[in-house]
Amino acid sequence: MRKISIILTLIIISLSASARQFTDRNLIKNRYTFEQVKEALVMNQKWVPYPAYSDRAGWNKLMGEYKSDIIKNGEKYLNYEWKVVPATAYLAYEQDGNRGIMEGPLGANNQAIASLFAAELAEGNGRFIPQIINGMYHACEMTSWALSAHLAGLSFCRRSLPEKGDNTLELTQGGMSQMFSWIMYYLHDEFDKIQPEFSKRFAAEIKYRELDSYLERDDFWWMGLGENFNKRMLNNWTPWCTANALLSFMLMENDRDRLAQAVWKGIQSVDQYMNCVQGDGGIEEGPSYWGHAPGKLYDYLNALSMITGGKITIFDEKQVKDMGEYIVRSYVGDGWVVNFADASARGGGLGDLIYRYGKAVNSDLMMGYATYLKDRNPNYRISAGLDVSRFLESLSYDNEYRNSTCPYEASNYTWYPETEFHYMSNAEGVFVAARGGFNDESHNHNDIGSVNLYYDNLPVLIDAGVGTYTRQTFSSERYSIWTMQSLYHNVPEINGVAQKDGEQYRASECISTPKSFSVNIAGAYPAEAKVQKWVRSYTMNGATVKVTDKFSLSEASAPNTLNFMTWGDVDTSVPGIITVKVQGRTMEMKYDKNTFSADTEVIKLKDGNLSHVWGDEICRISLKSAKLQKSGTYSITITKK
Question: Lowest CB count within 10 Å: 396, 448, 521, 573, which one?
Answer without folding.
Answer: 573
